[in-house]
Design brief:
Blueprint: E1 5-8, H1 14-25, H2 33-37, E2 49-52, E3 58-70, E4 76-87, H3 96-106, E5 116-119, H4 122-129, E6 139-140, E7 150-153, E8 164-168
Parallel strand pairs: 4-5, 6-8
Antiparallel strand pairs: 1-2, 2-3, 3-4, 3-8, 5-7
């Protein structure tokens, strides 16, 4: 990644963000289960960023969302859903995605960090940021998903419920 800038996502025209997401994930992305998990929520501006290339063109974005793991006892366990991490197809592999995830996770308050959850490649996100699917085997989502790709990152995994359904954080 050369001469890139990471800026707050709310500094970018929402239409440009939607166009980038369509190019990275196809317009049918709205049918994905991840959209149901965060349905009705607004992304978190303090943890959502854009990557600009050396020409100041938008090449990537990351959004984070307030979600909750709703346990069988009815208790909602608030979490931060990381993603989508989107990079233009022709720029993938250039380090923009890694820079976006690093910036987003660095914005989480270390004094009271909420667990972070995502749908992604366990090997990649585990190697760089400590995400794992070891604690998510009893979790469900409101739609089809690959259990091995449901990942969580948490300073104290013992606080995570063994079972629950991930969905919007409705306080």
């Amino acid at each position: 990644m050369s001469e890139a800038a990471i800026i707050p996502l709310d500094n970018v025209d929402p239409a440009l963000v939607e166009e980038l997401l369509d190019r990275a994930f196809e317009p049918a992305r709205h049918q994905r289960t991840a959209y149901k998990v965060r349905e009705g929520m607004d992304w978190l501006p303090a943890l959502s960023f854009a990557a600009l290339d050396a020409r100041e063109m938008l090449v990537g974005t990351i959004q984070c969302w307030p979600v909750a793991l709703n346990a069988e006892d009815g208790r909602a366990h608030p979490m931060i859903m990381v993603g989508p991490v989107a990079v233009l197809p022709e720029q993938q592999g250039s380090g923009f995605g890694k820079a976006l995830v690093t910036a987003s996770l660095a914005g989480i308050d270390a004094r009271a960090p909420l667990p972070q959850v995502m749908i992604g490649d366990a090997e990649y996100y585990g190697r760089f940021w400590g995400f794992s699917n070891e604690r998510t085997g009893g979790w469900t989502l409101p739609g089809p998903f690959d259990q091995s790709r449901l990942l969580v990152r948490c300073d104290n995994p013992a606080v995570l419920p063994e079972r629950g359904t991930l969905g919007p954080w409705l306080r």
